[in-house]
Protein: TIGR01741 family protein
Organism: Kroppenstedtia eburnea
Amino acid sequence: MLDDEKVGHMYQQIARTVIDMIPEEWDKVYLYGEVEEERQASFFFYYPVASKEPVYSLDIPELYEVDEEKFDQLKDQLYEHIETLWNEYKQSGEELWSTLNMIMERDKFKIEFGYEDLSAPETDYYERSLAWEYNYLGLVPKDSYAKKVLDEYLKKKESEQER
């Protein structure tokens, strides 16, 4: 059984690390993470105050004068926090999620879990990340290859839902 206080602290660690990575005031953050036994990935987008354009987390060092080494340490810390949360679910015997979505605003946050099989050959991380960006942020890729990948992914998901 999950220890709600312990898990709440883990959510706070994830949120604090994300906030520490953002070099400016923000209104909203969308975090995506996925975990499997031996693999973990995550990224986030945030909306700067009074901006309608989101900033991709991995673009931060390039866009701002941010110490890249410190940023990489925080990125690794974020990965570790998400993996620690996943391990807590695993050890407690709870249903094991594969994806995590955290939406943060100044005064609240929301957590959503996904339970898809990430090792299934019909999808890959690139497709899932494009679909996530589209579903959560309304972002449509600019380059033709990424658009094609997203379109194929969305068609595949639509046909699965019709079954």
Q: What stands out?
A: The radius of gyration is 16 Å. The chain has five helices and five strands. The domain at 120-163 is CATH 1.10.10 (Arc Repressor Mutant, subunit A). The CA atoms of residues 70 and 141 lie 29 Å apart.
